[in-house]
Amino acid sequence: MHTAQAGRVRQHGVVNADGRFAPSPTGTLHLGNLRTALLAWLFARSRGGCFAVRMEDLDVGRVRERFHDEQLRDIAALGIDWDGPVVRQSQRTALYDAALAALRDDGLIYECWCTRAEIREAASAPHGDLPEGAYPGTCLRLTAAQREERRSSGRPPALRIRADRARVGFEDRLTGPFEGVVDDFVVRRNDGAYAYNLAVVVDDADQGIGEVVRGLDLLDSTPRQLWLGARLGVVAPRHAHVPLVLGPDGARLAKRHGAVTLADRAALGESADDVRAELATSLRLCEPGERPSARELAERFSIGALRAAEEVAS
Ligand SMILES: [Zn+2]
Q1: What is the pTM of this model?
Q2: How far is the CA of 166 from the centre of ligand 1 (A)?
Q3: The pLDDT value given to residue 10
Q4: How many Å lie between the centroid of ligand 1 and the Cα of residue 214?
Q5: Which residues sit with Cβ closer than 5 angstroms to ligand 1, an ion?
Q6: Is the dihedral of CA 20, 57, 33, 268 positive or negative?
Q7: What is the pLDDT of residue 13?
Q8: What is the bridge-based pairing of β-strands 176-181 and 167-172?
Q9: Which residues of the chain, if any, have pLDDT below 50?
Q10: How far is the CA of 91 from the centre of ligand 1 (A)?
Q11: What was the pLDDT predicted at 232?
């Protein structure tokens, strides 16, 4: 939130940050994750901005405490530092509750009992300009009797937000203009956990994040988040979606591609400085053989040079 009255999500003593890295503590960070973390840090620190780390740990079934500690250790080893305490989404339920209550008051929330299979089936039929796989609004059109029947079934509903197929565009700082149609996405899952799209909007606003730097795989979800932010009355951050690191087979980098974590590299005798230099070389920020510190990289970094490097690489 950039002004006290800007939104309906309360400000409560969290450091305002220009940029952030927000991993999920569900596995070991690989070089692709680390490159995104380094870029997010460079965007913020190269202009003297604050930087926050937030753990997106809402998926309790997959979160492991050891990954929380290990991820912080790994980014610190690369020279990535952060301001204020590490924010954990699992401790911020009251903020999400308040946002959901505000959306409910506006009549935007409805219950959805669809199973995954039902959604797949419904979404495979053509629905005008909705993107592939989008939710077509089945449960919005239930009759009162059908709704009562589902309520009495005992199966807990997910909560969706009515977006009326809003069309939302924005200017990405790296990839340029992007536009998407917003479907009625889930804001709270049927197991009671808040959905990523709600939590990320509330947290970025609460932490005063001015610029979201993250992987290109999240580009599609940005129109949903911008639209939701507008419903909550928060100031929208700018966005820069950075290319993902690919394995030799052209697929997104993963464990099966070999030595892709800091621990794997350490076992091969490579230090965190070596890995940082490798990442910086891929960003055209250093020459082979150089070992610049993270601070030195922040001095060299510019978004114009990054855009040029990405164009050369593609
Ligand atoms: Zn449904």
Answers
A1: 0.90
A2: 19
A3: 38
A4: 30
A5: 112, 114, 138-139
A6: positive
A7: 43
A8: antiparallel
A9: 1-13
A10: 29
A11: 97
Q: What is the distance in A from the centroid of ligand 1 to the CA of 18?
A: 37
Measured in Å, residue 140 CA sits from the centre of ligand 1 at 7
- pLDDT for 254 equals 80
The CA 231 to ligand 1 mean position distance, Å, reads 22
